[in-house]
Every structure is written in C-alpha cells, then in structure tokens.
From TrEMBL, chain A:
One matching Pfam family: TPR_TTI1_2nd
UniProt protein name: TELO2-interacting protein 1 homolog
Family from the record: Belongs to the tti1 family.
Cellular component per GO, a single term: cytoplasm
Automatic annotation (TrEMBL), chain B:
Organism field: Solea senegalensis
Residue stretches of each WD repeat: 284-329
Keywords, in A-Z order: Repeat, WD repeat
Keyword Nucleotide-binding: no
Stated name of the protein: Guanine nucleotide-binding subunit beta 1
Length: 1123, 329
C-alpha cells in the first residue's frame, strides 16, 4: 500500500505531528477536531502509535469524561477514533483497560439508569460497541483476566447486562450482532479471525467462576434472543446460539467442575461483592442444569425446524459442543441435546447432515470408547450416557403412537428421525437395550401401532380388475417393483415416513440380537391378528437389516468385529429365516381368503365372455398370444366385479395385505441370505408360486415380485431358470397335492404359473405331472373339471407358445399361394401326395404307414429293428407335446357336452389351442377332429349363443388347419344354419339402435361374418355353398347395418373374390354398377347388368368400395404385367 | 382309526426308470443319503437334505439294478445288476468308480444278502448259476465260502437272508424258493436245518427280524405268512397271518425297532402293519404304478426316521410315519 509507505515511523516526528491537535482537542472538543486527529492518526504507523497510545488516548478519553451532556456525533467520532487506535495497538495497562472499559460502558447506558441502554443514535451505539470490541481484543493476556476477578464482578455484571439488553432490545440487527460479538469477546470466546488470548486452565476456571454469577441472566436473555422474532435474521440467531453454548460451556465445563478446587472463601474485603459470587457446587450445578434444560428445550423447539440451514447447523454445533465438553455436568440436558442432534440426521441441507453425522459418530465413539476403556469398572458416566439414550428411546417409543396420531407429517418425520438417530448412536448397545423386556415391549408396541394399515379401502379388492390387462403383459423385473401398490397406513401418508420406519426396523435388526427379535415379533405375529401385518412388515425389515441390507453405511465402521463372527451370524440368520418362513407359509397364515366366492364366479363368467381375446384367437395370430402369454394367470382377467357382501371386504383387504407382506418378506429373506436361500426353496417356492396364480391382482403381483427377488438372490438369471431348476421341488408338491385336491385346490394353479413362466425345456419335466392331472381329472369329472380346465388351458396355451406351429405357417403359405402362381406348379406333386394321403385317411386305412411316408425319408431298417426289441407293436413315439395335446383333446371332447356353459366355453378355448398345436401333425389332428366333430356340431347348432360364438371360432381354427377335411361337413351341416341365421338377423340388426352392439346376437353375427370369409376360402367350398354364403352376406353390405358388421361383411367378400373373382364381380355389379360397359365391337351384344342405372341406394357405397379395391387394382396389375 | 392316510413328506423324481431297490445311509454327521437302483441300470445317490440326486452311478451297462447296499466298515457301495455282476464302488471323496466286481451267473431276480462279520470282512450270499444254487463268498477276498444246493426240487431261489444268530457258531441263511418253500441253512455246516412250505406260489420276498427270530414272507397272492424260529432252529408257521385286499407284494421291510412292517404292494400301495400282531395300520397311497421297494431309514434319531418307497412309476416317495412314538422304546 502506498499509504503505509508514507506513514510516519519516527515517534518524535509523530508526536510533534499529533501534539497540536491533541492539545486543541482537549481545549475545544468538537467533531471536526476529533476527525482531524483521527485522520492524522492514520498517518502514523502501528509501532509508533503504540508508543504514543496513552498520549493520544488521553484527549479522547477527556472528551468522554467531561461531565454534562455530549453530542452524539462527538461521542461517535471519539469512539471511531479510539477504535482505530485500539485496533492497531495493544492495551498493556490494566488501568487503561479498566478505565476505557467503564467509560465506554457509560457511553452506552442511559445516564439515569445505568442498567439500560441509552437512548442515543444507532450509529453511536454501533461505534461504541465496535470500540469496546476493539478494546477487548487489544487487551494483553495478563491484564484481561483481571476483569474476571471478584472485585470486578459489579462492573462486569453491568456491562454484561447492558450488552444483553442491547442484543435483545435493539431493532438494528447490526447492533444486536455487535453486542453479542462484544459479549463473546468479553468472555474470550470470540470467533473472529484476529488473534486471541488462549486462557490456561486456571484462567478458564477464573472466567468460569465469574461467569457463573451471570449465567442465569445470560442464558435467559440469549434464549429470548434466539427464540425471539423470526425476522431478526439468521446472523443474530446464529451468534446468539453460539454465545449461549459458549457461556454454558464456560461455566459448566466438565473439566472445571471435576478438577478438585479449593473452595476459596471470599476475602472479607470484598464486602457486599462477595454475595455476588456463586460457588459452583453440586447443588448449584444441579439446579442450574434444571433451569437450563427448560431453556434448551425452548431453543431446540424453536430452531430445530428453522428455515435457515445455518441456524440448524449452529444448533448441531451447540449440541456437539456441549455434549463434548459438558456431558457429565449437563445431566438431564444430555437427552435433549442428543435429541436435537439425532433429529438433524436427516436434515435436507447436506452440510447440516454431514456435520451431524460427524458429531453423532463422535458421540457414539466417545460412548463406546469410554465403555471399552472402563469395561472392568463401568464409570457412572458411561452408564448414564447409555441410560440417557435408552431412556430417551423408551420415552420416545412411549409417546410415538400419540405423536403419530396427532402431529403433522413434518413433525412425525422428525420424531421418527430422532428415533432412528438414537438407535444409530446406541449402535451395538441396541442389543443391550433390547434385552430389557420393557424396552423391547415398548418399542415393538409402538411399531405395531404406528404401522397399522388402513384396510378400510374397498378399492384394493376391486382395484385388481382395472389395470390387469395392461399390467400382466410386461415381464420386466423392474416393472413389478415399479407398480407395487402402495400401502395405506392409518396414521401417515408420507412415503418418507414409511422409509424411515423401515430403516428403524433394519437398524434394530442390524444391531439387535436376531433370535430375540424374531422370537419376539413372531410372538406378536401369532398373538393377535391385528398385529399380524405390522409384525410381518417389521420382521421382513429386521431380517434385511440383520444381513446388512439397507443400513446406512456410515454405521458400518462401528460394527468393528462384525466380520469375525459373520459365519455364526449367517447361521443365526438362516435359522431365524427358516422359522419365520415356516410361520408365514403355515396353513393358517397362508391360505387366506382373498376373494369372496360370489364375486369370483361372476368374474370368471365375465372373463369368459370378454370379447377382446376371442378376436385375438380367431385371427389365429399366435404371435399375439405370445405377447399376451402372461395373461394365462386366470386372475388377471375379468372386469370389475360387483361389490360383494360388504362386511367381509375389510377382512379380504386385510388378508390381501397380509399375503402381500408375507410374500414381500420371502423376497426380503432371499435377499438377506443370497444363495444360501436355495435350500429354503424346497419349502417356500411352491407357496409363492401358488400365490402367483392367485386371482387377486395385488397378491399375484406381490408373488411375482417375490419370485424375481428370489431368482435374483439365488443367482438365477430369470424366472424361467428359477422354475426349471427347482421344478423337482415344485412338481413333487404338485403331484402330492393333486391327489388331495379337496385339501389343496391350489395345486393346478401352481402348475399353471410354472407353465406360464417357463419354456419348452420344462416339458420333459412336467410330462408325468400332466399325466397325473389327466388322471385326476379322469377320476372325477364332475367336481374337478372346472378346476382342471384352467390347467389344461394354461398347458395348451404354453404348448402353443413353446411350439409355434403351422397355424401361422399355413397362413403365410396360403397368402404366398395366392400371390404367386408359379409355385403352384411345383406344388402339384405335393398336392397329389397330400390328396392321396387324405383319401386314404378318409377311407380310414393305413394311418401307420402314413406316418412313415410323411417323413419323406425312407425309414432306416436297423432303426426299426432296435425299436422292435423294446416294443414291437408300438409305432414311433410322438413328440411329447403332441402326445399331451392329443390326450388333452381327448378329455376335452368328453367335456364338450358338459352341462355347465362356462365349462363348455372354456373347453372350446382349450380345444382350439389343441388344434393349433396338433396342426403340426395332420395325421394326429384329423382323427381327433373327426372325433370331436359331432360334439362341436352340437355346440354350433344347438347351444347357447355364447357357445355358438366360441364354437364358430373353433370351427374357423379347425378350418385353417384341416382344410378340405371339413368341407363336406361344413357345407352340409353348418353353412345352411349359419346363413339362415345371418339372413334372419340381418333386418333386425339393420333396424337396431346402438344398444344392439352389446347383445350376444350382435357378437355372434359379427363373429360369423368375420370368420366366414376365411373359412370359405380355406375350405375351398363349392359354388353352391359360396352362393349361399354370398346371399346370406349381401344384406350386410347395406349402409344401414352397424359399421363393424359392414366391415366384417366386406372382409367376407374380399375372401370370396379371391376364391372366384368373376362370379362375385358379376354379383356385385348386379347389385350396383357405376359404369356402363360399351362393347369393343358394335357386333357384340351390349352388356346389360341389372345393377346399371340403378339409383344410389343403401348398398352402393360398399359395393363401389369393393369394386374399386378388388378389381381396379387387379386390372392395373394385369395391365402392368402385359406391358 | 379314521384318521386320513398321511401323504408323503416329499418325493424324489427324475430317476428315469422303475425303482427296484432302496437303501438308506443316514448315519449321524454325514449328509443323509438314499441309494436307489433303477430299472435302467443306474444307481442314484439322493441327498435327503437337498432332495436331489447327488450322483448317478452307471456300472451295469444298462441292465436293471436289483439290489444296493453299503458296507458299514468301509463305506463302500455294493450294487447288483441283472448283468450278473455285483459291483463294489468306492465313493469316498467324491469318487465314483467300480473297484471290484463279482460275477454271480444268476439270471433271476434274487437279491443278494450281505453280512458284515468282523471289521474288514463280510459275507455275501447270492443266487448262483444253477437255478437252486446259493453261493456265499467272503469279501473283500472274494473267496468262496460255500455253495448251498437243496436236495429236493424246490425251484429257483427267489430271496435270501443271511444273518448271524446270537447263539450258535456260524451264520444262518434263510432262502425262499420258487415252489413256495422256505429253507433254513447252516452256513458253516452247509446243511439244511429246517424247511417249511410257506406259500403255494413262489416266495417273492421275505424279511426276518433277527432279534425276535421272527420273519414274514409274501408271494404273488393275497396272503402274507409269518413264521418263527424256535430254539432248535426249526421254522414254524404262525397262525398270525395277513390277507391283503390285492395280491402281490414286491418287498417287505421291518423297522429297526421292530415295531413296524411295511409292504410294497403291486396294487400301487404301501401297507404298514404293527410288527408284533401284524395289525394293519395304514395304507399309503401315492404311486401310480407297482411299488417295487420299501426301506426304513437308519437315522440315529428315531424321530427323523423315514420310510421310502420306490415304484415302477419312477418316483420315490418318502414318508414320516409313526416316528414320534418311536422314542418311547
């Protein structure tokens, strides 16, 4: 700085330079003179100033000392100038310090009442405060402590109360802050960047003793500042908190109080001053702490949720500071401080969180180290610390349910965070705390009450139906976790609260004795049904926590020797898990009713009648079935069920949740044990799969989620591997339970789930079980047919998925045939062979020879020989999926005439799938088709419209695969009825309103029209039949018909046109002809079509559309070919 | 007693063939194992903890395995196949190799009988090449001890049981023959001690309780006949006999504690009787084909004891029956 260069460094010159002004000022105190002096002083360097300090200060002090009222401006100027001097010099003499100190204090207080601040300008106060601050900083170490001698108590007290008053009452934040800073400086606790005197322990003691007298006043006043106006800004509050904590620390520091000090009797010459002194005796400390705790409570409640993070940080600092230095003497406050500390563990501001974690770690380490060091003789201090913590925990657990009921979410979160914090601070001591029955009881009861689920929500029981169709189509593992239904709790809604609660449980499991905990909570689980769900939730998390999952990592360090005993821990955990799983899947807790019988049946009906899936099958779009393959779970279908008898709904809801929680639990356990969970699959996988097949969406979803968890934990890449590799366990149980169906009606369901989630590699494994199923079905058609039908359906659906057969292939080949005629030439040989085969078959001969012929390769002779050895009279074994399909189809033929409509519909579905699978092998399919034809015909002609609808789909599928095998039968037995019914219905549908679209009759019409075209084409029907079809369909070209029917009818014609374009061109033109055709040569007869010149009528639109689409395009392509 | 019949506690699947024979090895400390011999010549070693086949031993070139047993002293496994071989397997430390084999020459179904005499050596009795012949050799030296051929025409040897009586110098052997007669042989004297005509049809199986000197045998008819051995080593038929609902028993087995008798029925059922009075106790129904073998486990703890049944339907079912009361004895 250039200025310093020019500063006067010679004391003599400086003296000469300053003297005139000093003299002038003494004579004539004015603002200008003071300012002149001030500016001159700036030109003197620090060392010189130090030498001249007393001299320069004199006129200034003289100004202040002059009796009588002074102008504010003057005093302010003086104070500023003095500040400058003091900031740059040291005060070495006690007299100067004392004198200045009291003079400055006098400037601040009102002349009439020395205890109150003067009514002067704010600038003045600020200047004086800064000056005072500078003075205290400038004081030499050896003299500053004289301030704290007993003799100084009155003066000090006056200053303190004055500053407190300033800090509290002033409106200006700066003054408040400056006053507080002064107080800090006065107690040698200043936190500014300047150098400070470091007091020795004796000096500390002296300060402490002196401040003890003022502690009540200080603590109360500062508390008022802290809890005062929120608008005062965080700076003041932060400083106030800081001062509070340092003041308390000064007086109540453990080191001071423990140091055995000779109780100095106040010397008699002090007189009345001796009364001011406070001996810091045990009793005094006790009563003071009692009062402090009240204040502390106020401070904490006011600042723990302060909006500014610095304030919260300061509170953490305070707690940390006091816990570190005064934890013994503060006694009952320790609990409060800890609470404040742990409450900030989950602060939203990371800096606060970090600080808090550090200090918590310190606390718990201090705690543990003192515990370790004093393992022989437990010092009372550690005892009390643990006691305080556990007591706090206890009281918090006691009040937890009440708090959870009454306070708002914010407060609840805070309380729970505190709870969690206690557990973390206790660390391994949790184990000790939990050993006390009272504690365990209290904590568990609190958790039970807090975690109470809200089962009043009726929607859970209904909800499954809405989203089902979308949700089951996805198989991604994360999907299940994403869509898990949120639990509704009675006492809170915030998800964060749940996660804190879960973490509490995990922490309990992490530190606690796993045997004790599982035992206790299992007891609760068994004890009362009202606790069951909560206890299960807690158990799940405890086990996870015990395995170290989801426990905050920072506490890992505290575990210390945990690694050494991990083997035994693992064993303990395994044993605990085994017992819990056993309890979960025990009959009473697992086989809960989740669906009321009535709604179930209704829903099944609905499901069977739901149209969308019919269409997908009628389109023979196997790929579509593949996509929806997960829908096999019967539960996932159906539309909203009418609400059932209300009293049970809550029970159902509760049951559903209990199952979900238990399923989640099994997932958790697998996570906890990892691969060690594999042996448990023996018992637990079957029940989980059983639930995966449950009707209730929520339960089945939870089960699927659990399955994913298990497969991940046990190291299986997907559900498929999980099921395949453990199929022996599953099948063993299934086969057992199939024999006792009345006790275990879920067995088929498990098989269904297995089939749904696995692939064809499972087939060899389930082969014999399928035989079991069929046998069980054979044994009791009456009672179990409906149950088994769903298994058969699942089975066939799985087979159709695993062996995507010719259903799609024929489709493709059919289309390719239509487009290219070249290929047809090549196919003639095959055609003739096929024809020959069909003929033979129709005559009923040589099925077996056919078989070998079909292979196209002459069968090797030696192969036959080896076959002879084992079974001479058996033909080559069918692939198992075909054999199964055949077996199933056989049963279905029987069931096709079951009295129950629902069953018949289901059976038709199964049959259709059988046909799809068997279509691969015509030799097997055709005899079966033949056998099932009579029954199918019955369905088609003389059954409920619903069955007719389904049967027609079946017929279409059969037509796709069997082709001309059906031609005669269809044309003779089916077509007449269908066409007559179409004709009969046409006028009705033409006239009907929109409501008609919801009737069965309409659906039947639509289905027939949609399928008829392709059926005709596939079966290659004769002309007469086509005419009949055409005649039946023509009315539906009318624009008066509902548009889906028109569309369907158009499709019929499109197919028909492909079969015989000319005929139908003519037919259509007969109906309506837009053009007049002029013959190319006048000799030729003019073309006369009855549709010509007809006025536009109801048919014209659709006819034109067809003509345009089908024939224009054809003519264009023909033209192109020619050219 | 109208309690519902129990169901198996679990089943073992995947043998891939009819299960002709079963043998438990559940000594304390080790993993409990069950050996099974299948119709396709494979010996499966089932781990009863994981309920899965641990190892498969194929040493009979696909011929049906009709008998398996273990040598307590060495832990070796013996398996008899219809390829006329008795193989000795070394299974220690995960090995599974044939260390020795004996050619029997028998084409019948007669299972061997093993008697461990002293540590290290044992006697093995098996049906010989001639139809009525029984050979006894010493293991591991394979030294022939004797050959027993009855004087009378009794037909093929069907089943044998070799044991060492408490009193008396040498081991005795019981044999059931094709004509339904039972013969008691003294092995050291090489002479027939007693004979009784137990069945009109061939003796399919027999079991003998060496403590109570009482045995029972079955044929392809409905009757089980029990007999005792009196002090003079005379076989005497007892009045106590059982008539089954359906004929045919493949195997009989008495539990070690002498309380239960189990029969493997051709009617797909396992029947359990009280051994003392042959009171029918339970009909165990699970299998869908002939039950070919039954065995009681040799668990140290009676409560863990199991009954295993192997069937032609390629499954083994394991049952825990009347095991809670066993600890009273």
């Amino acid at each position: 700085m250039p200025l310093t260069m020019s500063q006067i460094s010679d004391p003599k010159i400086a003296f000469a330079y300053l003297r005139p002004n000093c003299v002038l000022l003494t004579r004539e105190p004015s603002v200008s003179n003071v300012k002149t002096l001030g500016s001159q002083l700036k030109e003197v360097n620090d060392a010189t100033l130090q030498q001249l300090q007393e001299y320069v200060l004199f006129p200034l002090r003289f100004v202040l000392k002059v009796p009588g009222p002074k102008k504010d401006k003057l005093v302010q100027a003086v104070a500023e100038t003095m500040s400058h001097i003091l900031e740059n010099t040291c005060v070495q003499s006690w007299d100067t310090l004392h004198g200045l100190f009291s003079e400055l204090c006098l400037c601040l207080c009102s002349p009439t009442d020395p205890g109150k601040p003067a009514d002067t300008s704010e600038e003045l106060k600020l200047a004086v405060l800064q000056c005072l601050d500078a003075l205290l900083h400038a004081a030499y170490g050896d003299i500053v402590f004289k301030l704290f001698e007993p003799i100084m108590l009155p003066g000090l007290g006056a200053a303190v109360s004055l500053l407190l008053a300033l800090g509290e009452k002033e409106k200006s934040r700066d003054i408040q802050a400056a006053a507080l800073k002064c107080l800090q400086a006065l107690t040698l606790q200043c936190d500014c960047t300047q150098e400070h005197v470091v007091p020795s322990s004796e000096e500390q003691h002296a300060i402490g003793s002196a401040m003890a007298s003022f502690l009540p006043g200080i603590s109360m006043a500062v508390t008022r500042i802290i809890t005062g106006d929120l608008r005062q800004g965080h700076a003041v509050t932060v400083r106030a908190i800081k001062f509070w904590s340092s003041a308390v620390r000064l007086v109540l520091e453990d080191v001071q109080l423990q140091a055995s000090q000779p109780l100095k009797t106040p010397s008699s010459d002090l007189g009345r001053i001796a009364q001011l002194m406070v001996p810091r005796t045990q009793d005094w400390v006790k009563s003071t702490v009692g009062k402090l705790s009240v204040l502390l409570k106020k401070i904490i409640s006011c600042t723990s949720a302060h909006r500014h993070w610095r304030v919260r940080l300061e509170l953490v600092e305070l707690a940390d500071h006091l816990l570190a230095r005064c934890s013994h003497s503060l006694g009952e406050c320790v609990g409060l401080l800890l609470e404040a500390l742990v409450g900030a563990v989950n602060d939203e501001e990371p800096r606060v969180r970090e600080r808090c974690e550090v200090s918590l770690r310190d606390v718990s380490q201090r705690n543990q180290s003192s515990l370790n060091s004093s393992s022989g003789d437990m010092t009372s201090s550690t005892h009390t610390f643990t006691d305080v913590l556990s007591e706090n925990l206890h009281s918090l657990a006691t009040s937890l349910p009440r708090l959870m009921r009454t306070s708002d979410d914010q407060k609840k979160l805070f309380v729970l965070n505190v709870f969690l914090g206690y557990l973390k601070v206790l660390g391994p001591l949790v184990c000790v705390v939990l050993n006390s029955a009272a504690h365990l009881e209290r904590i568990s009861k609190a958790l039970m009450q807090v975690l109470e689920l809200d089962v009043m929500d009726v929607s859970i029981v209904e909800e499954r139906s809405h989203s089902s169709s979308i949700e089951t189509s996805s198989s991604a593992p994360d999907y299940y976790t994403a869509h898990i239904q949120r639990k509704h709790f009675l006492y809170f809604t915030d998800e964060k609260i749940l996660s804190v609660l879960m973490e509490i449980c995990r922490t309990l499991g992490f530190y606690g004795n796993i045997y004790l905990l599982t035992d206790h909570f299992l007891d609760l689980y068994r004890q009362s049904s009202s606790y069951r769900k909560q206890a299960a939730m807690v158990l799940n998390e405890i086990v996870r926590g015990a395995a170290g999952i989801g426990v905050a990592t920072e506490s890992q360090g505290l575990r210390g020797e945990g690694d050494g005993c991990s083997a035994t821990l693992k064993e303990d955990l395994e044993a605990a898990v085994v017992s819990v799983v056993e309890e979960y899947i025990s009959l009473n807790n697992w086989h809960l009713i989740t669906v009321s019988e009535e709604t179930d049946r209704d829903r099944q009906d609905q499901q069977l009648l739901s149209p969308p899936r019919l269409l997908s099958i009628s389109n023979n779009d196997i790929s579509k079935i593949n996509v929806n393959s997960l829908q096999v779970i019967p539960s996932s279908f159906g539309s909203s069920s009418p609400s059932s008898s209300t009293p049970t709904v809550h029970q159902l809801n509760s049951n559903i949740w209990q199952l979900c929680i238990q399923l989640e639990g099994i997932g958790c356990f697998s996570q906890a044990l990892g691969r060690d969970f594999r042996p448990l699959l023996m018992t637990s996988l079957y029940p989980v799969l059983e639930k995966a097949g449950e009707e209730t969406l929520l339960v089945s979803q939870a089960a699927l989620g659990s399955m994913w968890d298990i497969s991940k934990a046990c190291g299986y890449p997907s559900l498929k591997e999980l099921i395949n590799e453990n199929s022996d366990y599953l099948l063993s149980d299934i086969s057992l339970n199939l024999q006792r169906l009345n006790q275990h009606p879920q067995a088929p369901r498990v098989l269904t789930v297995m089939l749904t989630h696995s692939d064809c590699s499972l087939l060899p494994l389930v082969g014999d079980i399928v035989q079991d199923v069929l046998m069980a079905l054979d044994l009791s058609y009456d009672h179990t047919a409906a149950l088994f039908c769903s298994v058969l359906h699942a089975l066939m659906r799985a087979l159709a998925r695993w062996f995507p057969s010719s259903c799609t292939r024929t489709n493709e080949s059919a289309t390719s045939k239509q487009t290219s005629t070249d290929q047809e030439v090549l196919d003639i040989r095959q055609f003739l062979l096929d024809y020959c085969k069909q003929r033979k078959l129709a005559e009923g001969i040589g099925i077996e020879e056919d078989n070998t012929e079909d292979l196209e390769v002459p069968p090797p002779v030696e192969c036959e020989d080896s076959g002879d050895m084992e079974a001479p009279d058996v033909k080559a074994e069918l692939p198992s999926h075909l054999r199964i399909s055949k077996d199933v189809m056989e049963r279905c033929i029987h069931l096709l005439s079951d009295p129950s409509l629902r069953l018949r519909l289901k059976v038709l579905d199964v049959l259709e799938l059988c046909v799809c699978v068997l279509s691969e092998k015509g030799d097997e399919l055709l005899p079966m088709a033949h056998r099932c034809w009579p029954a199918l015909l019955q369905r088609l002609t003389a059954d409920d419209p619903l069955a007719v609808l389904r049967a027609f789909r079946m017929l279409c599928t059969l037509g796709e695969t069997c082709g001309d095998f059906l031609r005669r039968r269809v044309s003779k037995e089916v077509l007449p009825r269908l066409s007559s019914s179409l004709i009969r219905q046409a006028p009705i549908s033409a006239k009907a309103g929109p409501i008609y679209l919801h009737t069965v009759a309409y659906k039947l019409q639509l289905a027939v029209l949609q399928g008829l075209g392709s059926l005709c084409q596939r079966l290659d029907l004769g002309e007469a039949d086509l005419d009949a079809v055409c005649e039946a369909c023509l009315p539906y070209l009318s624009c008066r018909q509902p548009s889906p029917l028109q569309e369907a009818c158009l499709s019929v014609f499109r197919h028909l046109i492909q079969v015989d374009a000319d005929t139908f061109w003519f037919t259509l033109n007969e109906l309506h002809c837009p053009f007049s055709y002029t013959p190319p040569h006048p000799d030729l007869q003019p073309v006369q079509l009855s549709g010509m010149d007809r006025p536009r009528d109801e048919y014209s639109d659709n006819v034109l559309k067809l003509l345009r689409e089908e024939f224009d395009s054809v003519s264009v392509t023909v033209d192109q070919k020619i050219s | 007693m109208s309690r519902p019949a129990p169901s198996p506690i679990y089943t073992l699947r995947g043998a891939g063939g009819p299960l002709n024979t079963l043998h438990f090895s559940c000594l304390a400390g080790d993993t409990p194992l069950l050996f099974s011999g299948s119709g396709h010549g494979v010996v499966h070693i089932w781990n009863l903890n994981s309920r899965r086949a641990e190892r498969n031993l194929e040493g009979h070139s696909g011929s049906s395995v009709i008998w398996v047993n273990t040598l307590q002293s060495t832990g070796a496994l013996l398996s008899q196949g219809r390829d006329m071989q008795v193989c000795q397997w070394d299974l220690r430390e995960g090995r599974s190799e044939v260390v020795d084999s004996v050619w029997t020459g028998s084409v019948g179904f007669c299972q061997c009988s093993l008697l461990e005499t002293s540590s290290g050596s044992s006697l093995l009795a098996f049906a010989g090449q001639q139809t009525e012949e029984i050979k006894i050799i010493e293991l591991p030296s394979k030294k022939p001890v004797c050959t027993l051929v009855p004087d009378a025409k009794v037909g093929m040897v069907m089943c044998i049981k070799l044991w060492q009586p408490d009193s008396g110098p040498g081991p005795l052997l019981l044999a059931g023959y094709e004509d339904g007669s039972l013969l008691l042989w003294d092995v050291t004297q090489r002479c027939k001690l007693s004979e009784v005509k137990a069945h009109p049809e061939p003796v399919m199986c027999l079991t003998f309780d060496t403590k109570r000197l009482r045995g029972i045998s079955a044929s392809c008819e409905k009757k089980l006949s029990s007999w005792i051995l009196d002090g003079q080593n005379n076989l005497q038929l007892q009045d106590l006999s059982v008539t089954l609902v359906n004929p045919g028993v493949s195997q009989l087995c008495v539990r070690e504690d002498g309380k239960l008798l189990a029969s493997a029925g051709w009617d797909h059922r396992v029947r359990v009787f009280g051994w003392k009075k042959l009171r029918p106790l339970a009909v165990l129904q699970y299998h869908s084909d002939m039950v070919l073998s039954v065995a009681f486990s040799d668990h140290q703890d009676p409560r863990q004891r199991l009954l295993a049944a192997g069937s032609k339907d390629q499954r083994i079912s394991l049952w825990s029956i009347y095991s809670e009361g066993a600890n009273s004895s």
